[in-house]
Amino acid sequence: MGMAWQCTGLRWPDAQGPPVLGWRRGGVVRVSAQAYGTEFGFRAEGERRCVGARGNVCPVGAAVSGRSTGARCPECARLDRAHSVAADTIADDPRTYRVYLAWFGPGMVKVGITAEAREAARLREQGAVVFSWLGRGPLMACRRTEEVLRSALGVPDRIPYMRKRAVRGALPGAAERRAEVAELYGRAVALEGAGWPESLARLPFEAVDHAGLFGLDGEVEVAWAVTGLVAGGAVAGRLVAAAGPDLHLATADGAVVLDTRLMTGWELAAADARAGVGVPLTDIGGGGVQGGLF
């Protein structure tokens, strides 16, 4: 071991292009675009190790759980979060931020913030099917707006990935998706003057729909989700859709959603698309109970 490729995660660098998986082997770094309709497969080998934090390797190369999406030991996880905007520890950040409203499925709308320089990459990374900007300004003004919407309108700032995955197979039409975001936008701007920070500039409503980009504009079956990888376990099939960190695969064992964050920290070898799935799964399609295939 030691010279196998390690996955560094799924990214969405292009607003119109496919997602890419990052790979590292020794000092070599590369990416591979993930095109719908193509074969996808790998086998996890050895033991999963901590991926480190903020570009630094884990000093002890700690072993981590195959079910963790973070793939970090407690020490590296603390270091990573200490420098995160989400942790609210960077109050003097001079960059401009934006507040957004994001829709993931019927009744699943959240508020969030992202650095303006990142444009909409954060929305694609979360799997937002539709979003609109709400405002822009300093970090703390955006943070305050996020809090106002949470308290005044009951809008969450987080939606569990399992809920997002379960509804992707039966999304309503584009007009209905847009209308739900537009309704929340209207309620949000009605709060101007009632706690909305003066330094936050409102941005006009403009719904951006990612269903086509994600491959969700047709019928997509949702049945199983991978809950973790195991040594020697394979995940292989045909890529049919992707959203956020998730890849939707048509496999010999049915429709499977793979959270690519589970791939990080493992050494991975190629597997034939006919290999199917040999890792633990959970039912997210309402088809019954399955303890796992492995």
UniProtKB/TrEMBL annotation:
InterPro entries: DUF2797. It comes from the Bacteria. It holds the Pfam family DUF2797. This is DUF2797 domain-containing protein.
